[in-house]
Amino acid sequence: MLTKTNAKLPDIPLPLSLLIITLLSLCFANSYNGKFVFDDSEAIINNEDVQTTPLRNLFKNDFWGSKLTYKHSHKSYRPFTILTFRLNFWFRQTLVAQDFHIINIILHTIICILLLPVFNIILGSKGKNIAVYATVLFTVHPVHTEAVSGIVGRAELLCALFMWLSILLYNYSIYAKRLLCRWCSMCGCIASIAISMLCKETGITAIGICSIYDLVVVNKVLPSDVVTFIMIKSSYTDIKNVIERKQKLLIRLFILFASGLILIVSRFTVMGFKPPTFQPIDNPASFLDNIFLRILNYSYIYCLNAWLLICPQWLCFDWSMGCVPLITTYDIRILFVLIFWLIVGILFIYTFNPHEDEFLRYTIMGLVILIIPFLPASNMFFNVGFVIAERTLYIPSAGYCLLFVIGLHKLCNRVSMQYVLFAYTILILLFFTRSWIRSDQWKTETVLFKSALHVCPLNAKVYYNIAKNAADAGNSTIAQYAYEEALRLNPKYAQAMNNLGNLLKDQGKYLEAETLFKRAIKLQEDFATAWMNLGIVLSALKKYEESEKSYLMALSHRTKYPDCFYNLGVLYLEQKNYDKALKAWESATRQRRTHRRAWTNTILLLDDLGRHEDALITAIQALLFLPDDASIHFNIANILGKVGNFVQAEAHFKKAISKNPTDSMFYTNLGVLYHRWNKFDKAERMYRKALEIKPELHSARDNLRKLYSLKSSIK
Question: Could you identify which of 28, 189, 259, 521 might form a hypothetical disulfide with 439, taking C-beta atoms 3.0 to 4.6 angstroms apart as the criterion?
Answer without folding.
Answer: 28
